[in-house]
Amino acid sequence: MIPDRARVVFVGAGPGAPDLITLRGARAIAAADVVLWARSLVMEGVLEHAREDAEIVDSASLTLEDQREIYERAARKGLCVARIHSGDTAIYSAVGEQIRVLEEIGLPYEIVPGVSSLAAAAATLGQELTVPELAQSLILTRREGRSPMPPAERLEAFARHGTTMALFLSIARAAELQEELIAGGYAPDALCAVVYRASWPDERVLRCPLGELAERVSEAGIDRQALVLVGPGLRDARTRSHLYDPRHDHRFREAVG
After folding, report:
1. Total of domains in the chain
2. pTM score of the predicted model
3. pLDDT tens digit sequence for 198-218
4. Which domain holds residue 73?
């Protein structure tokens, strides 16, 4: 029988800056007997929330099977494990396969969401990505790499929508990314932004037309940990929302004029 205390709490640690972790995430780390984190993706400052006697394990070199051994030990000994992931656990976090392991073991788990790198990138750019009357949809995806894409989710197919796209895990092959987006329908002069390590001390931002993406990224030496944004949501639009327009009413305000 698994002790009551035994559990795993997946913590979205945010995009980088330690103070972007949620209060709930910080409390989960503070309560853990074992803290499992990826040094290559999460800033060490996040560990300041851990207890002095907590076991700290760097997961950078661990396989799923190695992590399973930690979870099985937690089940046997009644340990609480805080499994820290960068950004938010909902997007490209590999949490799903770990959850399957926990369900096989019978170890309870919970998930604490975090600030995504997309939110941090938009904040760095100083932009709202859903612009009234111009861009009301946002596609989150990646280009095909080691992980194949479902046929209906190829980049060219998404690019045909012409809306704003946020591309994760795609900067290493910027030339192919640029080619596929243009082949799908984006114009070479479409607005494009690259945010490298949003909220980290070495954060960098590149803005350029899509047709110059590969060249600019190569010149900057950026080949990892960057989010690419392209499309109309990057425009400096001058439209107004109805939310604060005095001519439109809602349940808390009557229209004026």
Report:
1. 2
2. 0.88
3. 999 999 999 999 999 999 999
4. 7-112
